[in-house]
Amino acid sequence: MQADRRRAFAVLLVRRLAGALWLLTSAAVAQTPYTPADERQALSAASPLRGLAATGAASASTPSAAESAEQALRLAQQALELGRARADPRWFGVAEAALQSWESVPTPPPAIQRLRAVLRQRRHDFAGALADLDALLLADPDDSQARLVRAVIHAVQGRPQQSQADCLRLIGASSLLLATTCLANARGLLGQAVPMLAALEGQLQSPAGLDAGAEERRWALTVAAELAVRLQRPAQASRYYAEALALASRAQVEDVYLQASWADFQLAQGEAARVERGLRRTRSDLTLLRLAIAERRLAEAGQLAFQSRWQAHAEELEARFQLARQRGESGHGREEALLALALRDDPLQALRHSERNWQLQREPADARLLLESAIAAGRPDAAEPVRAWLRSTGLEDLALRRLAGLEAP
Amino acid sequence: MSAALMARGTGLWLCLLALLLPTPPAAAHAGSTAYLFAQVEGAGLSLRWDLALRDLDLALGLDADGDGEIRWGEVRAMQAAIRGYAGSRLSVMADGHVCVLRVEPGLQIADRRDGRYAVLQLRAECPRRPGQLLLGYQALFDLDASHRGLLRLRYGSDAQDSQSGSFAPDRRQLRFGAEPGVFGPLGQYLVEGIEHVLGGWDHLLFLLALFLPAALRWSGGRWQPVSGLKPVLLHSATLVTAFTLAHALTLCLVALEAFRLPSRWVESAVAASVLFAGLNNLWPMVQQRLHWLAAGFGLIHGAAIAGALLELGLPLQGRVSALLGFNLGVELAQLSLVLLLVPVGYVLRERPGYRRWLLRPGSWLVAAAGLIWLIDRLFAMNWPLPI
């Protein structure tokens, strides 16, 4: 026992050292400045919003308040659209900068406050986002956009009842598919997964649902797929995932949340090779993490070519999270916990990250991470908050309940 | 029903649905980051600044021909604008003084994980070797609220000895070096005090004049050797301590701006004190109360150094500990000189040659130097003399 632990520690230490060396050398190589030989050499793709300094929010001329609000809003919307389509967070920073004149204004124009709420939510300032949304809904209870955003935040933060209340107000104020998706998302956390999945399936097959916008339908399919996974209906989940992924690729949108959700489903089914094929060229944190896990499984199943690949990807992710910490970002808790648990064999570290993450986000995925980390770290009592949450919500995630040692609801 | 309601301009909002799902803030690529490596070198700071080409493109528009690619030729053509942008978005202050920032000519490229960066070399010239540094950073915050400037600062050549920080829209200044606590300025100014004694010729010559006859006593119209090293060392230590105490008194009064003396007169008085100390060895005028003489000179030297110290930029917080440190440094350096020089004088004191070849010529030298300084400072001759 003692010897085992010592050996595990030694392995960990060697890995750490190797990782640090790799980082040091790769950083040194990559950073040496040079002078390109060819004038025509393309160094970087140009920004679709060229020379913001000259045209955008930082304009030298002083337009009227209404004009500048209009301009800022347009710029922020353009930037958000770019960030969304390319899964590139840099554009969210640009959008925020465009709105920075309103950053400390308590009640900006509603259109600006809505965008501000979304941006705050993006950088995990949930309290700031909720303050904006509460103010918007107080001024105009029929603001269905603010209603929808608040419903999603409540669900993400583990308040399904409040989410459900907001979703109910969407009925009649937005498309039925959207309202149903919102409700399925909330009530799926409240022990209503079976009827909500049936309702959602019905809406997806209805003429209006089949006719709905691609974004709307993709969200509905993602929620349906996750419900089906929790209810252990893999064939149904596969069908939803396949259509959602096809919609995203047709729209040339990189929906990293959807891809990661699909990969988790496939990994749970033991389909590491399929995940590796699907995500081979991915760059985003969420999907790179799943790719590395798939590669590790393949390596351990005897395909040794994947050994160095998964290790390099794990180092890459570690370097990214370190950069994020240096930048003072928070909100990588879920991914950092998964990295520590699945790739670093460091359950104590995973437990620390997932405990911190549980304070911010409380979805089934967050609950699973905290449970798995606590069990792996030999401290199952640390997951008591998850058990309490499972009991109070009645969540029908059979695998999660089994992990928590609870009966099916 | 739904189609009609959906037509009310919620298109963008549905697009945003994907954004609401729980992904970390920087899901795919890193947010905009610039890297600054700063090294204290001589009287200033040498900096390397890596700015992402896509960030510079956002700020300045680098794709001149609009083909969607930023090419090396286009970057080169914009060099002046890029250097101007960088130069106007960074500031360096050292010990309360603005340092002059220069962006060196030339620009290179570096490959990083998230794309290519322009590498600029900068130099900040400060009045002297920086102690406490205040760096101000303004790049890109007006265009990208998620921009961060990551800084690594090294004071010495030791890689371990580096400090780091990150500039953000709500943190546009970073302070490094001596902490405004008690130990920081104390230690820093202690070193200043030691350097002041060992680096200033007037101070050294004055001390030399005091110590040359330390192992001798003037009695019966001639220098007599003193027996026993202990009284000699004690006597010398009393002298330098009297000097330091008086020195500390005026230094504190002037540095705390209780009063200010015209520097020309103070500097001239310092020169006169050196002249007097030399002459006093040749034709002893004051011997019994030599410590009072030392104290008097201490007052003058203190007033002189206070002006210089004020220009050094005394930190506002911790002024008292800075002054304490400086005076302790002065005392420490002087006592070490006592321990170093006085025993030598003691060993040699019985030799007849000591008086003839060391005491007399040395005192003449000190007196001459004092006289030259006196004339130079009194009449503002601006001769190129060491201080």
Characterise this structure.
Chain A: It comes from Stagnimonas aquatica. Chain A: This is Tetratricopeptide repeat protein. Chain A: InterPro entries: TPR-like_helical_dom_sf. Chain A: Keywords: Signal. The complex is a heterodimer of chains A (about 400) and B (about 375). With about 400 residues, chain A is mainly α. Chain A is built from 22 helices and one strand. In chain A, α5 runs parallel beside α7 (about 145-155), α7 runs antiparallel to α8 and α8 runs antiparallel to α9. The longest helix of chain A has 30 residues, at about 1-30. The two termini of chain A are about 40 Å apart. Chain B is built from 13 helices and 14 strands. The chains are: A mainly alpha (about 400), B alpha+beta (about 375). The interface between A and B is large, with 97 and 72 residues.
Secondary structure: elements and pairs:
The complex is a heterodimer of chains A (409) and B (387).
Chain A lengths: L1 H30 L10 E4 L6 H4 L9 H22 L3 H9 L11 H13 L3 H14 L4 H13 L3 H9 L7 H12 L5 H13 L1 H4 L3 H17 L3 H17 L5 H13 L3 H8 L5 H16 L4 H22 L6 H11 L3 H12 L5 H13 L7 H10 L4 H7 L5
Chain B lengths: L1 H5 L4 H5 L1 H4 L12 E8 L3 E9 H8 L8 E3 H6 L1 H10 L1 E5 L2 E2 L1 E4 L4 E5 L2 E11 L7 E5 L10 E7 L7 E6 L5 E4 L6 H17 L1 H11 L4 E4 L2 E4 L3 H27 L7 H20 L7 H23 L6 H30 L3 H27 L9
Parallel strand pairs in B: 1-10
Antiparallel strand pairs in B: 1-2, 2-8, 4-5, 4-9, 6-8, 7-8, 9-12, 10-11, 13-14
Summary keywords:
heterodimer; A: 409 residues; 1% strand; B: 387 residues; alpha+beta; 50% helix; elongated; disordered N terminus
Structural class call of chain A reads mainly alpha
Topology pattern of chain B, helix = H, strand = E: HHHEEHEHHEEEEEEEEEHHEEHHHHH
How would you describe the oligomerization state of the chains in this entry? heterodimer
The count of strands of chain A amounts to: 1
Shape of chain A: globular
Number of strands of chain B: 14
- Decide which structural class fits the backbone of chain B: alpha+beta
The chain pair with the largest interface is: A-B, 97 and 72 residues
Report on the biggest sheet of chain B. 7 strands, mixed
What share of residues are in beta strands of chain B? 15-25%
Q: Please report the number of helical segments of chain B.
A: 13
Global morphology of chain B:
elongated
Mean pLDDT of chain A: 85
The portion of residues assigned to helices of chain A is over 70%
Structure annotation, total helices of chain A: 22
Contiguous uncertain segments of 5+ residues of chain B: 1-12, 24-28
Give the overall pLDDT of chain B as a whole number: 79
Q: What is Rg of chain B?
A: 31 Å
Q: What's the main sheet of chain A like?
A: none
How far the N terminus sits from the C terminus of chain B, by CA atoms, comes to: 91 Å
Total domain modules of chain B: 2
InterPro entries (chain B): Put_HupE_UreJ
Signal peptide (chain B): 1-30
Pfam families (chain B): HupE_UreJ_2
Keywords (chain B): Membrane, Signal, Transmembrane, Transmembrane helix
